[in-house]
Amino acid sequence: MAEVPCNNAEHPLALEAVNVYRAVPGKILTDNISVQVKKGDVLAIVGPSGSGKSSFLRLLNRLDEPTRGVVKVDGEDYRSISPEILRRRVGMVMQSAYLFPGTVGENVAFGPAQRGKSLPDTRIDALLERVGLSEYGDRDVDNLSGGEAQRVSIARTLANEPEILLLDEPTSALDESTALEIETLVRDIIRERHMTCVIVTHSNAQARRVASRTMIIESGKLAKIGPTDEVLRDD
């Protein structure tokens, strides 16, 4: 199913995938998917396990390379953007929080430090406060719960001030109560910052709560896309 082009100048495209295809030996992961995401939009990706949801998401900030096709960020072919700058502009939060050894504060400051920028303690404290971890800066990451670690992961991503946020099942590894807390946190941050967001989720209920639009991927193909309530009407 092809995405209908967006020509509304009031809502320019933040992200666009054009006939994106990726194959590895013996398997097609994404099969000519075309999608447009307007600035400030929240798009959910749902579908069966193994359908290619996460594979497609990883192509959007070039963690994996398309075999063919084009991904554009703010209208620019992302191959013309250095990977370091691209992944700052298009931040990603994984299913599991892969934190670096050390303190919470060191993790939050990591991205800016890679660019030679020292993140002030006040900024670190503000980010941690926003994700509900006030006074956690000096804690060792080995002493965090799963929910706390995911909050640090979110703060670390926000420290780079991304334009676009990619979320790969960010709550699926958490218990139900913690998952809802993280979901609410993410939803509030997206709205506060007017961020563009693409979220992979195994939960249609979560897609309804979070996303204005939803796409369904089946066997690597775009099966359906549109307003969330319409796409998931029969589910």
Automatic annotation (TrEMBL):
Keywords: ATP-binding, Nucleotide-binding, Phosphate transport, Transport. SUPFAM superfamilies: P-loop containing nucleoside triphosphate hydrolases. InterPro entries: AAA+_ATPase, ABC_transporter-like_ATP-bd, ABC_transporter-like_CS, P-loop_NTPase, PstB-like. It comes from the Bacteria. The keyword Transport applies. The keyword S-adenosyl-L-methionine does not apply. Pfam families: ABC_tran. GO terms for cellular component: membrane. One of its GO terms (molecular function) is ATP hydrolysis activity. Residues 15-235 form the ABC transporter domain. One of its GO terms (biological process) is phosphate ion transmembrane transport. PANTHER family: ABC TRANSPORTER I FAMILY MEMBER 17 (PTHR43423). Belongs to the ABC transporter superfamily. This is YbbL ABC transporter ATP-binding protein. It comes from Methyloceanibacter caenitepidi.
